[in-house]
Amino acid sequence: MRTSNIIVQEEQKQNFFVSLYNQLKSLIKCECFKSLITLSYNQKPIQIPKQSLQHMGRKTLVIDLDETLVHSSFNYISDPDFILKIKVMNANYTIYVRIRPGVEEFLMKMAEFYEIFIFTASICEYANPVIDRIDSKEVCALRLFRPNCSILNGVFVKDLQKLQRSINNIIIIDNTHTSFSLQPKNAIHIKNYFDDPSDTELLDLIPFLQLISTFDDVRPVGEYWKQYVRSEKIKYTRNGEQYIYDRNRNESYEEMDAINQSINQIKDNQTLLGKQQLKLQTNFAIDYDEVNNLTENDEDIQFRNEQGINSPNLNKSHFNEIDQNDQNL
């Protein structure tokens, strides 16, 4: 075997072991980080404050962080929006973060209509600096972390009952079904975000969330969202009154108005049909007064009518009589 081939093989072995070492190192790091997160669950849950005067009367929009607003990776990626370096229990971590398209616009717009909570199952040492970057205007009213989660069948879930808000006024947006398994009617499931620059999930939600912020009860928000996407009419209650939203017309109207409009339309159709029938009958009716008041100029017409000359069923014997008279002459 040539010396050059031996050198190449040795280099390949070294590269393989270096790559394997880096992968194991990354995996161990992730597992250590997960264990730290699990340990941090024993922290004392924070108290949920009462709704501020600024948000008084508004509904609460609860938004997940990872794969909903951002995607984070312990492995190197070439085009992160920012790189986060954190230290947890004397261990250093480098995290590469991509921001979902439309996050800033989404948060700013939703802050006009909702009290916003960001609720993540991660620890605050990681989540806080990420939220600081994506919420530079500080429109988020409250940040919730793993200590605020509940455990159900070994899985962390986000119990909306703990938020001390009326459950009919809470919406949660999350990419994981288990996160909202306790209150599925309050949830909008959003697809995972990893790196798609053309993603419009958040921007697509803006007009719908603006609409539903006026509902007396947001539930079942997931079904309302599906109806909205399919451009179906949405029935809801606002200030105790029944309304229907028509996306094709981009407007809401009272349900009784819609019923009355349907009734009036039926009545109008019946009236129009009656007029058409009356007109049809009038066109085929005989005006006997007009027949009785024939002028002298119309006497010849009357005579032909009496003799059946103008009739399409003219009696053939009539012509036979005329022909016989002509021959006699």
From TrEMBL:
FCP1 homology domain sequence ranges: 54-212
Region described as Disordered: spans on this chain: 306-329
Biased composition annotated in UniProt, kind: Polar residues: 306-317
CDD domains per record: HAD_FCP1-like
MF (Gene Ontology): phosphatase activity
Recorded superkingdom: Eukaryota
InterPro entries per the UniProt record, alphabetical: Dullard_phosphatase, FCP1_dom, TIM50
Pfam families, A to Z: NIF
Protein name as it appears in the record: FCP1 homology domain-containing protein
Record organism: Paramecium sonneborni
